[in-house]
UniProtKB/TrEMBL annotation:
Cell compartments where the protein resides: Cytoplasm
Family affiliation: Belongs to the uracil-DNA glycosylase (UDG) superfamily. UNG family.
Lineage start: Bacteria, Pseudomonadati, Bacteroidota, Flavobacteriia, Flavobacteriales
Superkingdom of this protein's organism: Bacteria
Chain coiled-coil ranges: none
Protein name, UniProt field: Uracil-DNA glycosylase
Residue ranges of domain Uracil-DNA glycosylase-like in the record: 50-211
GO molecular function, one term: uracil DNA N-glycosylase activity
Organism in which the protein naturally occurs: Arenibacter arenosicollis
């Protein structure tokens, strides 16, 4: 298995591919994809980077793990393939957008349309076994994606990081808050949303306000 990172990201991350942890990760993932059903499909593992190029990145949303049901994961956090039933967290994201900026609830749960506008939809772990949530955690992906966040913080300015839930909030330590914007809230999962930690965060209108204040194109959510 050869991991192909889009050219715009390669110079930023190329050193990682020669690190012992990444070589070990590659061996593990290769064997997993041979022995088991894993998601997303191999060509989509780096889809977040394929759709949001380094020079275009304006917003970063951090998820934890790909969806582990058949046909769901497409390499972008919270996103599902066309025609797939929207998972509960995605439903709550779309409901908040509807309340916040008035965008009608969409038919498609495929968030490539966001990524193509400069939203990096980054899962901390980029692969998973079918029906086994968290099965590829602590194998090296987190080291890689933490480095992505750190490098983004160092190399760019004025990014908007949306950190939803306890796991994502821990990534704030990797981000220079003097150079970037960090918006935090509860997770859009039903457990958190039903306790009042998600709805009303207005992250989507806040993000667009910040972008416009910095003379950048707002996101069409």
């Amino acid at each position: 298995m050869t991991f192909k990172l889009h050219d715009s990201w390669y110079s930023l991350m190329s050193k990682e591919f020669n690190m012992p942890y990444f070589k070990s990760l590659t061996s593990f993932i290769e064997q997993e994809y041979i022995d088991r059903t894993c998601f997303p499909k191999e060509s989509d593992i780096f889809a977040a980077f394929d759709h949001c190029h380094l020079m275009d990145a304006k917003v970063v949303i951090i998820g934890q793990d790909p969806y582990h049901g058949p046909g769901q994961a497409n390499g972008l956090c919270f996103s599902v393939n066309e025609g797939v039933t929207h998972p509960p967290s995605l439903i709550n994201i779309f409901k908040e957008i509807e309340m916040d900026v008035g965008t009608p609830y969409p038919k498609s749960g495929n968030l490539e349309r966001w990524a193509d506008q400069g939203v990096l939809l980054l899962n901390a772990t980029l692969t998973v076994r079918a029906h086994e949530a968290g099965s590829h955690q602590n194998k090296g992906w987190e080291t890689f994606t933490d480095t992505v966040i750190q490098k983004l913080s160092e190399e760019k300015e004025g990014l908007i990081f949306l950190l939803w839930g306890g796991f994502a909030k821990k990534k704030a330590k990797l981000i220079d808050a003097k150079k970037h914007y960090i918006l935090t809230s509860g997770h859009p999962s039903p457990l958190s949303a039903n306790r009042g930690y998600w709805f009303g965060n207005k992250h989507f209108s806040k993000t667009n306000r910040i972008l416009m204040e910095n003379e950048k194109q707002p996101i069409n959510w």
